[in-house]
């Protein structure tokens, strides 16, 4: 019974652990989805606002159009710089400091954009004309700072790309030079031995006729040549002795 109780407790503990892990995973997934939806919603809302400001800067004449143009230039400078810094951050960690500065600029830009929005709704044109130069000067300062960060980041990334391209070109030239300098391959040991044996056999066959005079290699040596009896009468006598006698053995 005690063993059964231990098994039941372990199974229950395992089930509770799985349930907790499932709940935690679900919560994290829901938060990630919500953050992604919020980010896309914010981007979509900002895009709609930028389109509306662009339309206002073109369609509305006078101070209202100039205010919309200032708000649009402020947003465009900050958004462009943020995209450049975020795209280069994975390759260059030093851009993180620039992103922090941009975040501080973004807070000042948000305050300035709120003031411009209020000035856009101001009914008194005299107040708008009085406040607009100051706000324009602040917009130019923020946009210049954002542009400076973006241009510096672009120059830095281009310089790194040029350095990397120069190193790659040098490595390619070195490899090309190494490929143009080659040495003949060493012959195999078996091929060398076979060539030596072939040369030795050819040399021996060429020297053999000059060294052997009595027992030549052209044809077999006869008994007469070995005994020195190669004269013409002895040859004819041998031929007669080899021929059969048609009259019989007792006839001359």
Could you characterize the architecture of this molecule?
The chain has 252 residues and is mainly α. Helix content is 81%, strand content 0%. It is built from seven helices and no strands. It has helices spanning 2-59, 63-88, 95-120, 125-180, 189-211, 223-227, 232-242. Helix 2 runs antiparallel to helix 3. The longest helix is centred in the N-terminal third of the chain and has 58 residues, at 2-59.
Average pLDDT confidence is 75
The residue fraction in helices comes out at over 70%
Distance between the termini: 137 Å
Number of strands: 0
Helix run count: 7
**What structural class should be given to the helix and strand makeup?**
mainly alpha
Could you describe the largest sheet, including whether it forms a barrel? none
Q: Uncertain runs with pLDDT below 50, 5 residues or more?
A: 209-218, 248-252
Q: Give the helices and strands as they follow along the chain.
A: HHHHHHH
What's the gyration radius in Å?
54 Å
Instruction: Indicate the overall shape.
Output: flat
β-strand percent reads under 5%
């Amino acid at each position: 019974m005690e063993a059964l109780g231990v098994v039941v407790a372990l199974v229950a503990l395992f089930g509770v652990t799985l349930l907790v892990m499932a709940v935690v995973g679900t919560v994290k997934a829901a938060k990630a989805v919500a953050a992604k939806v919020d980010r896309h919603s914010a981007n979509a809302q900002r895009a709609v606002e930028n389109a509306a400001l662009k339309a206002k800067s073109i369609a509305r004449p006078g101070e209202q159009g100039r205010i919309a143009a200032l708000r649009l230039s402020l947003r465009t400078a900050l958004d462009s710089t943020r995209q450049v810094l975020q795209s280069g951050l994975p390759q260059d960690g030093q851009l993180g400091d620039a992103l922090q500065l941009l975040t501080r600029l973004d807070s000042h830009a948000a305050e300035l954009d709120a003031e411009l929005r209020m000035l856009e709704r101001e009914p008194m044109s005299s107040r708008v004309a009085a406040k607009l130069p100051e706000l324009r000067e602040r917009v130019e300062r923020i946009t210049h700072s954002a542009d400076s960060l973006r241009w510096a980041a672009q120059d830095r990334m281009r310089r790194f790309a040029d350095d990397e391209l120069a190193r790659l070109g040098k490595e390619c030239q070195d490899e090309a030079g190494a490929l143009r300098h080659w040495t003949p391959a060493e012959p195999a040991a078996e091929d060398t031995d076979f060539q030596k044996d072939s040369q030795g056999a050819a040399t021996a066959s060429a020297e053999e006729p000059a060294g052997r005079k009595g027992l030549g290699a052209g044809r077999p040596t006869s008994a007469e040549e070995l005994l020195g009896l190669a004269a013409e009468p002895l040859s004819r006598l041998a031929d007669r002795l080899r021929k059969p006698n048609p009259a019989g053995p007792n006839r001359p």
